[in-house]
Design a protein that fits this description.
Elements (H helix, E strand, L loop, with lengths): L1 H21 L5 H17 L15 E3 L3 E4 L2 H50 L6 E3 L2 E3 L6 H17 L1 H14 L5 H21 L3 H12 L9 E2 L3 H12 L14 H22 L4 E3 L28 H11 L4 H6 L2 E10 L5 E8 L5 H10 L7 E3 L2 E3 L1 E10 L4
Parallel strand pairs: 1-11, 2-11
Antiparallel strand pairs: 1-6, 3-4, 3-5, 7-8, 7-11, 9-10
Helix pairs in contact: 1-2, 1-9, 2-6, 3-5, 4-6, 5-6, 6-8, 7-8, 10-12
Length: 402
């Protein structure tokens, strides 16, 4: 969902650059490639959310801290309720999204079928092209017929229909973005300006032909019409407009700060995503007692980290549930942090559980007992083989919570 939001924000930013800075320029081919390029850039930049940066060389993986207090059970109950609501909301949004995709897909297929039927009929009141197919107005004659044919042949030669179909396909999966109707319309306008520029040797006569054909033209969405009423005024305006000075091509450089802005958003959103999941931090081990035997070679920074069945959060929840206060700790009202280090062998077994920070009163021994009850892990992987790796888990106790 975050990917869709960021990619559509990026598309809106790029389109605003086009609308405010480029639309009135006569660099029609440049505008075409800018619109296509911004489409791909908008959906490629947020891919950075899924690019994993290699972890630095360090010695031990720290599991996010667990907190246990007197009111922990009530807190967990509230958390479960909130999680259930979040899942329900996500499922509803997901269903609405795919329903929209299905509806727009059906509409798209309907228009394709209707267009193919028109092409199969072989003649129409208006003239248009679609990929390699050209349909000409049956009332055109002589020079006008040749002029319109040349116009549509240029559309076919430049592959303009592919641009429109590409935009329509992107629109299917981003139907909620209000920019798409405008984007498709502007792409068709740029196409027409490109072809008009190449074929209008006599601009006055060409404009008169456009006006004459417009009287019998109905709006179309997928094909390229010779004279589309909704685009006609702007086409004639651009036809007679003085060519933009070459120096104004520098305006296209506005895409660079926009791209940097989107990269900044992606980086920040990625950091926020990482914060929503308990962060995995790595620290260096200090002096520890001699290690017990364990399976596999101990690798400090494996390619793939060991993982608990159901994820690290599931391990934290397990330890939290299995931890038992000693009576001595209750009587003393202990408050503070306990830290345990352990090794996950290549067979997934936990060993070498050592308390490196303790609060006394049996609190460290209780943490060891809770960890020992956990099931086997999925071991770390190095060069395609399972290996042993180190972990650390901090647990904070506070019996004073109310």
């Amino acid at each position: 969902m975050l990917y869709l939001i960021l990619s559509n924000i990026a598309l809106i930013v790029f389109f605003l650059i086009y609308w405010l800075g480029l639309r009135k320029l006569t660099f029609f081919q440049w505008n075409r490639w800018f619109l296509l390029g911004s489409l791909f850039a908008a959906y490629l930049i947020p891919m950075g959310l899924y690019v994993q940066v290699p972890m630095p060389e360090m010695m031990i993986v720290e599991i996010p801290e667990i907190t246990i207090g007197a009111n922990q059970q009530a807190i967990e109950a509230d958390k479960v309720s909130a999680d259930q609501w979040d899942i329900l909301s996500f499922q509803t949004l997901n269903a609405m999204y795919w329903l929209g995709v299905a509806m727009f897909s059906a509409w798209f297929l309907y228009r394709i079928v209707a267009l193919l039927r028109t092409i199969g009929a072989g003649s129409a009141k208006g003239s248009f092209s679609f990929f390699g197919k050209i349909v000409l107005n049956k009332e055109l004659q002589d020079e006008d017929l040749q002029q319109v044919r040349n116009h549509e042949l240029e559309h076919v030669k430049q592959g303009h229909s592919l641009d429109i179909i590409l935009l329509e396909i992107f629109r299917l999966f981003n139907w909620f973005n209000p920019i798409y109707p405008m984007l498709i319309r502007e792409m068709k306008f740029v196409h027409e300006c490109i072809v008009d520029e190449k074929n209008a040797d006599n601009k006055v006569a060409y404009a008169e032909l456009l006006l004459a054909q417009a009287m019998n033209t109905k709006s179309a969405l997928l094909q390229h019409e010779f004279s589309n009423n909704s685009l006609l005024k702007n086409r004639i305006t651009m036809l007679f407009k003085e060519k933009t000075a070459y120096k104004f091509k520098a305006i296209y450089l506005l895409a660079l700060p926009a791209t940097l802005f989107m990269l900044f958003l992606v980086v920040n959103c990625k950091q926020e995503e990482q914060k929503t999941e308990p962060p995995v931090e790595e620290i260096t081990l200090l002096d520890l007692p001699e290690e017990e035997k364990f399976e596999g070679s101990l690798i400090d920074n494996p390619e793939i980290l060991a993982d608990y069945p159901g994820g690290i959060d599931n391990f934290r929840k397990f330890v939290q549930e299995k931890y038992t206060y000693t009576q001595a700790a209750i009587d003393a009202g202990v408050k503070g942090k306990i830290v345990a280090n352990f090794i996950i062998g290549s067979d997934g077994a936990i060993s070498n559980i050592i308390i490196t920070e303790d609060l006394g009163h049996g609190t460290g021994e209780a943490l060891i007992a809770a960890i020992e009850k956990a099931e086997k892990w999925k071991p770390a992987i190095q060069d395609g083989k399972p290996v042993a790796s180190r972990f650390m888990i901090p647990l904070r106790l506070d019996l004073t919570q109310q």
